[in-house]
Amino acid sequence: MFCTWGAQHLVPLFLLLSCALLPGQCHLYNNQYSGDKVIRVFPKNEKEANELKNMYQQLQVDLWQPSSIRHIGKDTVTDVHTSGNSSQVLLTYLTKAKIQHKILVNNVQLMLEAQQVFRPRRKRRSLSRYDYNEYHPLHE
Length: 140
Fold this sequence. Notes:
Layout: H1 7-21, E1 37-42, H2 46-59, E2 62-65, E3 78-82, H3 84-96, E4 100-105, H4 108-118, H5 132-135
Antiparallel strand pairs: 1-3, 1-4, 2-3
Main location: secreted
Keywords: Metal-binding, Secreted, Signal, Zinc, Zymogen
GO molecular function, one term: metal ion binding
């Protein structure tokens, strides 16, 4: 049996090797957070705070700060993580309602991947090669 290697074999092989050799370049979490945003919102009054509470519940956003929707009030800085689709709805709503906001993280996936590149790789330890006496003398 004779096997010929063509482009259809090289592309998957290249992707596999690039992920093995350059782990920081592969998509973490299966690209789950691609397009997700972190948005900071500044409600100026109780009316805006109540509107935000309702909007957050409808969109089912991930509230980062404060710890609970109950704590959102006038002048409470609010940070939310939204999916790509929800972020567009929320940003449109905030702009139309003239509620002050800013985007803290434009793409959560890219931020996670950038952090992974700079994280030092830890060596795996093996129990089979661990020598307890090397670190702990017998008289301890």
